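Milestone M4 deliverable, item 7.
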Amino acid sequence: MRKIASKIINIFLIAIIIILLGFFGINLFNSLSGSDNTSAPRLLNVLTGSMSPVVKAGDMIVIKKVPFDSLKPKDIVTYRRGNILITHRVMSIDDKTVITRGDANNVDDEPIYKVDIVGKYLFKIPYGGYLSNALKRPYVLIPILSLLFIYIIYGYIEDKAKKLPKDS
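Output delivered:
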């Protein structure tokens, strides 16, 4: 039973490490490359339910800059309206403008221009926005990293203790 619990803890910790490295790696890459001018995927936290039930508040979405010509109705895009990023579905599109609407909304948005489009929705990470926001807080991140450090040290000490010769 102890071996099973140990394996579950190891899998859980490896998953946390992969998630942390992924969040930090993509965010670091985006900040170093000036994320608006790159074709690298971006992670965004969803703040409202305007795209519910497809994308809910608290989800994290991954978007990628794509050529304007590749967009078509029913695609989900993220666009800039002033200082705000909005993710809605394309309802219609012409050479210069795009009409969008949130799936949970009854009215189309004001037309946007192709220069305002930041990227196209690729996929979501359910509840990833909550996790991302939590990991940005030191009072959450420090205990997690501390427990991870203690677990690694404990595993190292336990491994060394097993290798010590036993007294007869």
